[in-house]
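LOG
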Amino acid sequence: MSTPPRISTRISAISESATLAVDAKAKAMKAAGRPVIGFGAGEPDFPTPGYIVEAAVAAAREPRFHKYTPAGGLPELKQAIAAKTLRDSGYRVEPSRVLVTNGGKQAVYQAFATLLDPGDEVLVVAPYWTTYPEAIKLAGGVQVDVVTDETTGYLAGVEQLEAARTERTKVLLFVSPSNPTGAVHSREQTEEIGRWAAEHGLWVVTDEIYEHLVYGGAEFTSIATAVPELGDRVVILNGVAKTYAMTGWRVGWLIGPGDVVKAATNLQSHATSNVANVSQMAALAAVSGDLSAVGRMREAFDRRRQTMVRMLNEIPGVLCPEPKGAFYAYPSVKELIGKELRGRRPASSAELAELILEEAEVAVVPGEAFGTPGYFRLSYALGDDDLVEGVSRLAKLLADAR
C-alpha cells in the first residue's frame, strides 16, 4: 500500500525565494567571518525615517492598538492610502476599495487568488520578480512568459503581448518600474499597452511599488490613470517597503474594484486577519508625510546606479543596459558562460554566480531565478563603498575568464 505524500503537491511545487536564499547564504558566510558583499536582496540600506518610527512608538503605547482591528485595514490608513494614490499617480479611489496587506507579497498572492480560476492564463514579461510565478501557480493559473532581453531594454511591446494572447488569457501583469531589470515604460508605451488590454477585455494587475524610484528622464506612469477605459478591470499593488525603507514593517496594499477587494478581504480575514496595528500606524505616517526623505534616498540610488552600470560595462564579457528605475542592474553575462575560470567552466549563470560567491565573496542572483538564464541581478541599494568594492572584486575575478 502506497504512503500518501507528507507535503501536498500544491505546496511542494513552490520554490524558495531565490533572492532571499542568496541573501541568507551571504549573511551566513558573513557571520562566519568571511567579508561577503551582497548584491542579492532588494532592500534599501537606509534606516526607516525617524518620524515614521516615532509614529510606531506612539501607537505601541495606545491600548486600542493592542486589540484586533478590521481585517481589511485601519480606516484612517485606507483613507490615507487613497489620498496618497491621488497625490502620486492621479488615480482617484474610495477608501472602501483599498485592502491593507501584510507586505506587498500578500497583495500579489491575494490578487491572483481572487482573479484566477484553474487554467486561466496570465501574461508575464520576463525577466520577472520571483514571487509572481509562485502566486500564479498557487491560484491555479498558467503563466505565459513574454521574454525580453537587453536589446529592447527589457521592454515588451503590444506585438509581443498579442502573440502570446490566447482565448484563455485573463490577466496581464504590468510592472513598471521593473524588478529585476529597472526597465520603465514611457507614458506612450503604457497607454498603448493599456488600450490593447482594454480592447481585449483583459484584467491588468499592475505592481507600482517602485513608483518613486525613477531616474534621469524617466517618468512613472500608472496604467490605471493613463488608460481610464480599463475601468473596473485593473488592480493596483503597492506598499511602503521600497519607497520608505520599510521592508521589515510588512505593510502593502491592493486597490481594485469593490467586488475584488471584498473577496480578497474575505480571504485575508481567514488567512492573517489585520496587519499589525503598530506597522499600520507607521505606514500611515509614511504615506501622509512629504517625500523629502524619499528624494534623498533616490539621489543616493541614482548615484550608485550610474557607478554600478559604468563599472559593470567595463568588465569584458558583461553588457549592462542602463536601468531607468527601481534599484537593480540586470547585466548579461552570456559571453562568460562556458569559459574557464579558476579551473572551472560554469555551464550556466547559476553556476557562475556560485563560483563568484566562493571565489570573490560577492553574492549576486542568477538570471535563472527571473526566468532568463544568462544574466545577473545586482541591487545597488547598498553603501557606495561596498558597491565599488563588490564590483571591483567581480571585475578582478572575471578578468581571468578564458
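LOG (cont.) second protein
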Amino acid sequence: MPRSPTLARARLSSPALVAALASLALLGIGGGCAATTSGQGGAPLAPGPAAGDRASTSDPSGATSTDPSAWLDEAERALASGELARAATLFARYLGHDGSGERGRQAYAGLARAHELLGDFDAAIRAYDGFLARFGDDPTAHLMLARRGACEAQVLAWERSAASYAQVIELGGDALIPSQQVEALARQGFALYQLGQLEQADAVLANADAIYEAATSAGQERFSDTYFVAMARFYRAAILHLEFRKVRIRLPEAQMDADFEAKLALLERAQAAYNEVVRARHVYWVSAAGYQLGSLFEEFYDAIMYAPVPDWLDDAQRRTYYLELEEQLRPVIDKAVWVFEKNLETARKLGYDNEFIELTQAQLGHLQGIVLGRGEGGGPMPRLAPRDPDDADSSDPSMPSPQDELPAVERKLFVPMPTTL
C-alpha cells in the first residue's frame, strides 16, 4: 500500500494570516482584529493619521485610494502579479463596501481564488459559498462549484465535495464539454471512494470513462490531458483491489478451493482494470498502476503461501507441502518482478519520477532480497507485500513492515490525493 502524501490544512503564513484576518473582519467575527467601519455599507477604512490622507503605511493591503472601485482594480492587479495576500485584503475590503452587482461578483470570485492560491482552503470555501449564495444563477456558477469541490477535498470534507460535483453535473448540463464532465465525475467518484461508498463510486467512475470513450470515438473532443480519465480508471481498479484483499482463504479444503477461485477471479479483474489505466497513457497514473499491479501479485502470493495448512499433515508432509507450493508460486513472483521492472523501465525511458517510482524501486529490491535469501524450505517464505499491523487476520501481526512507521490513517489510504483544479 503506497505512502499517501498528507493533504492537511495548510498552516497560514504571515501573508495568508493578513488575508484571513481581513476576511474575518468582513464577516464581523474578528474580535479585536476587526477594522473600524464607516456608516456606508460597513466598508473597512484604512487606518491613518488624518482623514484626508490617501495612503497609510500601516494598511496591509497597500491601497492607494479611498475609492472602492479602485480597491477592486488594485486587487485584480495584485492577483495577476501574485501578491495574493494583498489581493485578498483588497477584495475583502471591497466586499465590505458592496457585495452586489457585477463588481461584487468579481470581488467574491477574486477573493476565493486568492485564498485558494494562498492554500487557505477553508477561507476559499467561505468565499465560494458567498459567491454561490448571491450569484447562483450566474453562467459561471458551475465552475465556482467545481473549484469549491476541489477545496473541500483538500480539507477532507468528502461529503461536501461529492455533493458539489454532483451539482456541477446537474447545473452545468449541456454547457459542460466532455472533458469537464469527466473531471467532475472523476472527482465525485474519488470523494465517494473516500467515504467508503464503493458501489456508488464505481458507477460514477464508470460513467466518466464511458463519456470519454464516446467523445473520442465520435470525434466530439480530443482530450489534451487524460489525467482524469486515468484517475477514474485507477479508482475502479482500486475498488476491485480492495475486494480482492477481502477474500480470505479458509479451511476446510472445499472452502479453500472456493476461496482460491474467488480470489483468482478478482486478481484477473483487477489486473485487467490496472491495464486499462496504463492505456489512458498518463505518466503519473501509469506509474501508480504499475506499482499497484506488482503489489497485487505479491499479495496473491502471500495469500496462498500463508493460507491455512490442514492439521493432518505431519512435519515431513508440511515440508514437502511448502516446497511444492513455493515451486508452484514461483511464476507469481516472476510476474511481480517483471511488472516492477517494467514500471522502472518506462519511467527511465520517458524521463519522469514520482513517489510511485521510488516505491517501485524499493519494493523491487525488497522482493529480490527475499528471493535470493530464501532458506532451505520447509516453511512459508517471508511475506512479499508490506502488511498492515492492524490486520486482525494476520498470523504474525508483529512482523515488521516498511509501513509500520506511518500513522494508521496514512497506512490505510490506498492512493494519493489528486491535485486541485
